[in-house]
Design a protein that fits this description.
Distance between the termini: 34 Å
Strand content: 35-45%
Mean pLDDT: 88
Radius of gyration: 25 Å
Structural class: mainly beta
Low-confidence stretches: 258-280
Number of domains: 1
Order of helices and strands: HEEEEEEEEEHHEEE
CATH topology: Porin
C-alpha cells in the first residue's frame, strides 16, 4: 500500500475518480451451527453503501459500511440434539483495495478481486420459550471470564475481507455487477459456541439458571438428553467466518472521468499524440 501511495503522490486529486457504491444481497456464516462453507440455507438480507477512488485503470481504494443479520439453528443443521440457535445483527466498516483485470473504461465487462481489513459489531442472541429476546454474550455459556483459558469475547471484532466480482459498464458513469466477499474473523464466538460444556453446577453457581438454560437446549426436545457432563464437546473451535453475496451498483457522481487521467494512446476511439505541435 505504501508503494501504491508513493506512486500516486504527484498525481492531482480528482473528484471524477470517485464512485458512490451500493450493495444488496444476502449474508450467511460458517461456524458451529452452519457447517457448509457456502450455502443459501438460513441466509438473511444484507446491504451496504460505500465509495471507491480510482488510483489507476487497474486499482482503486474502497471503503464500505454494511449491515446484515446472521442466523443459524441446529434444527436445520447437523447437530439437532444440541438444539441451539442464534441470531446476530452485524454492523461492519471496512477499507481495502480493488484490482481490475481489465480497465473498465475500455471494456464493457471486467472481473476484479478485493481485499482489506474490517471492524464489525456482533451481539448473538436467541429467544426463550415465551419469545423473549435473550442476549448470549453476557451469559458466558461456556464459562468465559471464570474458567481458566476462556476470556470473555468482545462484541467488536476485526476481520479480513476478501473476495471477487464482475462489473458491467452501462455508461461511462454507471456500472452494475455481482460480488461475493468472505470475512475471516479472529473469534469463534460469532454464534456463542466454541469449545466444551462447563460443568452444570459450576455454571449455575456463577451465572445462574438462565446461563444453564441456554448453554444446552437438547432437554427441550421430546426424548431429549439432559445437560451433558462438563468437558463434553460443544463446538469445534475453528474461527468463524461470514460472507456477503449480491448485486452492486456504482455511480460516478461528479461526472465524466477527467481526460487528464487518460494515459493510453488510444481511448474511446480517439487517437492521442505526444509530439509537440500536433493537436490532441
Amino acid at each position: 500500500m505504501l508503494l501504491l501511495f508513493s506512486a500516486r503522490a504527484s498525481a492531482q486529486f480528482s473528484l471524477q475518480n470517485f464512485h458512490l457504491n451500493f450493495f444488496g444481497g444476502m449474508a450467511n456464516y460458517h461456524g458451529d451451527l452452519q457447517d457448509k462453507w457456502f450455502t443459501f440455507s438460513q441466509s438473511k438480507l444484507a446491504g451496504g453503501i460505500g465509495g471507491t477512488y480510482d488510483l489507476s485503470d487497474h486499482l482503486s481504494l474502497r471503503g464500505t459500511l454494511a449491515y446484515a443479520h446472521i442466523s443459524a439453528d441446529d434444527k436445520l443443521g447437523n447437530h439437532r440434539a444440541r438444539n441451539l440457535n442464534f441470531t446476530s445483527r452485524l454492523y461492519e466498516v471496512s477499507a481495502g483495495v480493488e484490482y481490475y483485470f481489465t480497465p473498465l473504461d475500455e471494456h464493457v465487462l471486467t472481473p476484479y478481486i478485493f481485499g482489506g481489513i474490517s471492524l464489525c459489531h456482533i451481539n448473538p442472541y436467541t429467544f426463550d420459550s415465551t419469545g423473549k429476546m435473550i442476549g448470549l454474550q453476557i451469559l458466558n455459556t461456556e464459562g468465559e471470564g471464570f474458567v481458566a483459558g476462556r476470556p470473555s469475547y468482545n462484541i467488536y471484532q476485526y476481520g479480513i475481507p476478501f473476495g471477487a466480482g464482475v462489473k458491467f459498464s452501462l455508461t461511462e458513469n454507471i456500472n452494475v455487477g455481482i460480488e461475493i466477499g468472505f470475512r475471516k474473523l479472529f473469534t469463534d464466538y460469532l454464534d456463542d459456541v466454541s469449545t466444551t460444556y462447563v460443568d452444570e453446577n459450576t455454571l449455575l453457581a456463577k451465572m445462574g439458571p438462565r446461563a444453564v438454560e441456554f448453554a444446552y437446549r437438547g432437554d427441550e426436545l421430546k426424548d431429549g438428553l439432559p445437560y451433558p457432563p462438563g468437558g463434553t464437546q460443544r463446538g469445534t473451535k475453528p474461527k468463524d467466518w461470514y460472507y456477503f453475496a449480491g448485486f452492486t451498483a456504482s455511480f460516478r457522481i461528479f461526472g465524466k472521468k477527467d481526460a487528464r487521467n487518460d494515459t493510453h494512446g488510444f481511448r474511446h476511439g480517439h487517437t492521442q499524440y505526444d509530439c509537440p505541435g500536433n493537436v490532441l
